[in-house]
Amino acid sequence: MSNNETTAKEYYIEVKGEKIPVTEEVYRAYYRPVWAEHKREERRRKCRLPNGTRCNKKCSECTMMKNGSDLSLDSLDEDIGFEPQSDYDVAGIFEKQELLQRLHTVLDELEDIDREIVKLRYYESKSEREIASIVGFKSHKSVSKRLNKALAFLRDKLKDFI
After folding, report:
1. Is the pLDDT score of 116 beyond 80?
2. Could you give the CA distance from residue 160 to residue 32 in angstroms, rounded to a whole number?
3. If we measure between CA atoms, which residue out of 23, 19, 25 comes closest to residue 11?
4. 58-94 pLDDT, tens per residue?
């Protein structure tokens, strides 16, 4: 590998003992509450100097070391009512990710012209008349027929997800 090439970092969340690949955004959202509490716990364990500032010495070498408790989300819930962010539905995110991967695979199975029509219609919001002129069809009805055929194909291939 050359110096100019970089490898993309892979992110995983462990669910029921299985490592599930996720995007960096999902990974960070999932672990953010844990990291924040870890940092709070780290600060809490640091001792305060007589002037009120936190000690910057290594705790193992400090004579004023405070002993904190082990970090636990369960104890946080009991002590201060802490709850991890619940607005992320991890199972739902994995289902969507799997659907998107399957959709990309199925889209690759379409003929080039059908893939182009679907892209122009749904990603670029072009009308059937505009698509007809772009792809060189004489009638927007030809676009409509190809689009309906492509959508039926996609529905059939993705029926397990719909």
Report:
1. yes
2. 33
3. 23
4. 666 666 545 444 444 555 555 455 555 556 677 777 8
Give the number of other Cβ atoms within 10 Å of residue 158's Cβ: 14
Model-level pTM?
0.45
Distances (CA, A) of 90 to 45, 85, 135: 32, 11, 40
Alpha carbon distance 3, 69 (integer Å): 45
Q: Residue 29 and residue 91: Cα distance in Å, rounded? A: 14
Say how many C-beta atoms besides its own lie within 10 A of residue 108's C-beta.
Answer: 8
Q: What is the CA radius of gyration of the chain?
A: 27
Q: Residue 106: which of 161, 59, 26, 145 has the closest Cα? A: 161
Decide: 113 and 102 in contact? Cβ < 8 Å. Answer: no
